[in-house]
Amino acid sequence: MSELGGLTDKGLTYTNDNGDEQLIPRCNYSNEEGYKYDMETTARKEQLMAACIQKYPKIEKGSIELLIDHWLNYPEKMMDEMKTDTEYMKKFKK
Fold first, then answer.
1. Residue with more model confidence, 62 or 34
2. Which residues make beta-bridge pairs with 23?
3. Are 11 and 26 contacting, i.e. CB atoms less than 8 angstroms apart?
4. CA-based, 20 to 30 A from 11: which of 5, 21, 29, 44?
């Protein structure tokens, strides 16, 4: 399982399962707007935000947004990570 390193001025560091140090870069905030997406991706992000906030009302919105941004920017990494989660994968037919 991955291990968190710490938050730096460049982003969040962690050590992956192979022992390699990785970096999740900080958001490229511009006028507090967050990541810049095209119109279609922005609409998808808004849909995901609304659905996640409704499903997980006790989770801070900023945390949800961080995960959604990571999903939008690194979908392959997120799918690989989710496939290693045995609890998550119990939901699906083998």
1. 62
2. 13
3. yes
4. 44
The pTM is what? Answer: 0.58
What percentage of the chain has pLDDT greater than the value 70? 87
Dihedral in degrees, nearest 10, Cα atoms 81, 15, 24, 48: 20
**Inter-residue contact 28 to 20 (CB < 8 Å):** no
Q: With beta carbons less than 8 A apart as the criterion, state whether 11 and 25 touch.
A: yes
Look at residue 66 and tell me whether its pLDDT is greater than 70.
yes
Continuous H helices in 1-94: 39-55, 61-73, 75-83, 86-89
Q: How many helices (H) and strands (E) does the chain have?
A: 4, 3
- Which residues are registered as beta bridge partners of 24? 12
Q: The tokens of 91 are what? A: 């939901």
